Structure to design on (892 residues):
């Protein structure tokens, strides 16, 4: 046994200097490694904050655009509805129209209409007395002076009464002769935009602002007044101007904001509107967790430096005798151990010592608390390996082999099973003790990092791998850069995926809005066509009119027929058209269609039919299907420059439950027939393919196409329970595929009702009651029926029609869409009073009329209705009320 009190030889000066140099070198290495670790950790936090601000700015810009789109749709609808009326500035009509828009768009705040002098005629949120005049507002002046200004968005304005800040969206209102009639506008308070921004949490010093294209402030959160900024202020930082010159649509930069707060800022332009959304996050907020790491790392560093200073102080006393040096070194070592223990305890760490030759490990009390055992201070090393999660044992084993074989520093992050807390994440580091390359004893620390892993697991693992590589050897720095680049790429890929999903959602919402708008336009347009067609028919039929006048009337009839075909396509695109579910024999249909196409397409186009034998019938409206196929064939002919081969193939296909392929993901499982029309033309570019099914989109010259062919085909296929998909390749051609449900094999063809011969009855003995709220449509229908010999009464509303019921009415013709009681409700009330009374429902937009059950006393006809067809239908119903009728009559 060695006597620690026996005199010992004084150490040589060389050993003392060598030892001091080692201490100073270790201190310098610790400082360098800690500094690199702190810098890298801060960069990781900053990159995560940049991704957050970019995604938030992009999300808010799309939310703002979606809200303004809904407001603009309400303005367009109100404008179109008012411009169809003779007295378009009638306050009562304006209030009713505005109220309908408020019911459709719940987020509208104020909707108002002015006359040509700028006086607000009617609207919501008006002060008592309604003396508001906007003739001096810039948006009013722009719309008054320009016929094609479109949608005008104002600068931030203060209201005349309560001085509330807002922006205005306005459109021009024209009379039928094109003269300026006034302005229809919506008011959006800046408070509502601030409420939208308030749903985003960016920390205590975060900020979100909306700026115009000239960079003036529109609104801000926190409110602009808190930073001394008023709406319209154009103060911006030089950093943003410089960054905006390089990246005009979106970007991220760092600057000190106008409220003197440094922030990481991201901006994104609002699609289709003159605004930018700017999102800023302060380093104080996104670096809070980094500062906690800095405190723990600093405490450990200070402890190590303090230890080295104590040792250096002991070295300065080298002139003291050896016993005193030993005592001083022992006290210094004890002091350093105590400082190190305090630092380790303060950083919530435990210590351990592994003895390789004895296969044992000694751990501190703090380490036993982290691991949940063992009770003894020294335990077999295999015990600790058994605590490791099975999925992490390979990683731990590799780190141990690397440390033993190469003498490298030991570092690993793994999960261990705590007896009371379950699986916990720990960070274990260690290094070899001793000189001369001996690898018998390793000391190290262990730290519980479960809470850090829970906060941002992926980023912490990347940082831990980078720290381990940096401390192991300099060559691994390249691997760290590769890992960081890979992480950034994954973030970019995820952002791109979400942007693609948002783009598809926005496109679907736009197409739905266009469909609703198209259906509404078709309804109103059918009423106009009914009047034009009726007037032209009466002028053409009048024998006393000059031949040139009658010829012009015939031209009007032909034009109105073409217009009716266009509205029919609009209804097909909006999926509001009336379809009959016929069972179509594809063999017979395509054989007859081939003869028609051979003349239509010309001699330069060869047609080849490829039909799979034994196919069942398909379920679709036959006439609409033939129209769709002809339209697609004509498009193919134009794509082939009238020279090439058109392939039409039909085959059966069963769609399974989990199918995934393009547009057929919309199909329900079951049997279908797929019709494929392929050409040998030039094909389409990806940009054209993306818009091919949009309404009114066409690559043809002006006047050579309506742009409704594929849009109508897609709407018809989906309304029929099928789908449409397009495949194309530049230089190879295009294939359009249509899926339709197959008819059941044992289902017979529906028997067609054959009306028996009507009993002879003079038209003058038949009294008609015609009901329509549109005075033009009502007047022309009355004149047409009187000209054909019927006695006619008229009513402009359902209530008036009920008053005429007892005046000897034999048959009622009513419009579907009327204010108050509509046509369906009127028919129900008429049949309640007179069950056998024949009725005809006229409508330009079938809608819910498609669901009427078959009745002997009710027929639905679509506007524009041919006067002769209407007269024959009246004779059939008045002459034989018991004859079965079809529920829906379609005009060509």
């Amino acid at each position: 046994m060695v006597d620690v009190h026996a005199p010992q030889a004084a150490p040589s000066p060389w050993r003392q200097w060598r030892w001091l140099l080692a201490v100073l070198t270790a201190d310098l290495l610790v400082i360098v490694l800690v500094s690199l670790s702190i810098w890298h950790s801060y960069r990781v936090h900053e990159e995560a904050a940049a991704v957050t601000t970019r995604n938030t700015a992009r999300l808010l810009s799309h939310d703002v655009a979606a809200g303004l789109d809904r407001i603009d749709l309400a303005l367009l609808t109100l404008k179109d509805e008012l411009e169809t009326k003779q007295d378009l500035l009638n306050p009562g009509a304006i209030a009713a129209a505005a109220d309908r828009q408020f019911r459709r768009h719940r987020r509208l705040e104020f909707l108002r209409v002015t006359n040509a002098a700028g006086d607000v005629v009617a609207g919501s949120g008006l002060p008592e007395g309604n003396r508001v005049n906007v003739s001096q507002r810039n948006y009013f002046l722009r719309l008054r002076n320009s016929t094609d200004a479109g949608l005008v968005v104002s600068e931030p304005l203060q209201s005349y009464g309560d001085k509330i800040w807002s922006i205005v969206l306005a459109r021009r209102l024209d009379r039928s002769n094109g003269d300026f009639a006034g302005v229809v506008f919506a008011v959006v308070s800046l408070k509502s935009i601030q409420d939208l921004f308030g749903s985003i949490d960016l920390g205590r010093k975060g900020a979100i602002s909306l700026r115009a294209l000239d960079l003036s402030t529109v609104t801000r959160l926190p409110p602009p007044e808190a930073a001394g900024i008023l709406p319209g202020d154009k103060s911006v930082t030089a950093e943003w101007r410089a960054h905006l010159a390089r990246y005009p649509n979106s970007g991220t930069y760092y600057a000190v904001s106008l409220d003197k707060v440094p922030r990481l800022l991201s901006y994104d332009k609002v699609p289709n509107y003159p605004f930018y959304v700017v999102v800023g996050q302060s380093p104080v907020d996104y670096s809070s967790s980094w500062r906690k790491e800095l405190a723990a790392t600093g405490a450990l560093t200070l402890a190590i430096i303090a230890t080295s200073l104590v040792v250096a102080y002991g070295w300065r006393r080298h002139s003291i005798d050896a016993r005193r040096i030993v005592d001083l070194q022992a006290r210094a070592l004890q002091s350093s151990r105590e400082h190190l223990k305090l630092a380790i305890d303060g950083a919530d760490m435990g210590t351990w010592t592994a003895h390789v030759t004895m296969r044992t490990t000694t751990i501190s009390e703090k380490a036993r608390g982290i691991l949940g055992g063992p009770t003894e201070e020294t335990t077999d090393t295999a015990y600790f390996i058994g605590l490791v999660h099975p999925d992490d044992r390979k990683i731990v084993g590799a780190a141990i082999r690397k440390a033993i074989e190469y003498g490298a520093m030991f570092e690993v992050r793994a999960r261990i099973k705590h007896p009371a807390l379950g699986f916990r994440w720990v960070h274990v580091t260690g290094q070899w003790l001793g000189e001369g390359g001996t690898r018998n004893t390793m000391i190290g620390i262990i730290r519980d990092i479960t809470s850090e892993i829970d906060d941002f697991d992926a980023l912490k693992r990347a940082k831990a791998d980078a720290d381990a590589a940096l401390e192991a050897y300099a060559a691994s720095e390249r691997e760290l850069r590769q890992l960081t680049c890979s992480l950034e790429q994954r973030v970019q890929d995820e952002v791109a995926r979400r942007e693609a999903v948002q783009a598809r959602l926005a496109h679907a919402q736009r197409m739905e809005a266009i469909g609703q708008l198209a259906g509404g336009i078709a309804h109103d347009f059918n009423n106009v066509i009914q009047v034009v067609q009726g007037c032209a028919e009466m002028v053409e039929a009048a024998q006393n009119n000059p031949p040139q006048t009658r010829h012009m009337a015939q031209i009007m009839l032909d034009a109105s027929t073409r217009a009716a075909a266009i509205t029919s396509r609009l209804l097909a695109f909006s999926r509001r058209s009336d379809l009959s579910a016929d069972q179509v024999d594809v063999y017979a249909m395509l054989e007859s269609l081939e003869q028609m196409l051979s003349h239509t397409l010309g001699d330069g186009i060869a047609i080849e039919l490829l039909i799979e034998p034994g196919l069942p019938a398909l379920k679709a409206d036959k006439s609409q299907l033939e129209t769709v196929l002809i339209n697609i064939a004509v498009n193919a002919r134009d794509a082939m420059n009238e020279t090439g081969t058109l392939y039409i193939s039909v085959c059966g296909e069963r769609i399974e439950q989990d199918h995934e392929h393009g547009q057929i993901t919309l199909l329900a499982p079951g049997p279908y027939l797929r019709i494929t029309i392929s050409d040998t033309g030039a094909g389409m570019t990806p940009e054209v393919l993306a818009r091919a099914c949009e309404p009114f989109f066409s690559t043809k010259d002006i006047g050579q196409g309506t742009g409704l062919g594929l849009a109508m085909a897609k709407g018809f296929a989906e309304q029929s329970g099928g789908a449409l998909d397009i495949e194309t390749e530049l230089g190879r051609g295009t294939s359009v595929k249509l899926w339709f449900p197959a008819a059941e094999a044992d289902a017979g063809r529906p028997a067609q009702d054959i009306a028996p011969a009507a009993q002879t009855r003079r038209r003058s003995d038949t009294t008609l009651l015609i009901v329509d709220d549109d005075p033009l449509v009502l007047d022309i229908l009355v004149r047409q029926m009187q000209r054909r010999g019927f006695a006619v009464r008229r009513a402009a509303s359902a209530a008036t029609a009920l008053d005429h019921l007892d005046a000897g009415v034999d048959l009622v013709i009513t419009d579907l869409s009327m204010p108050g009681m509509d046509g369906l409700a009127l028919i129900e009330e008429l049949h309640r009073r007179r069950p056998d009374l024949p009725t005809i429902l006229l409508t330009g937009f079938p809608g819910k009329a498609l669901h009427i059950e078959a009745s002997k006393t009710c027929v639905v006809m679509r506007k524009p209705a041919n006067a002769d067809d209407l007269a024959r239908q009246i004779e059939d119903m008045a002459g034989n009320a018991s004859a079965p009728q079809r529920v829906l009559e379609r005009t060509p």
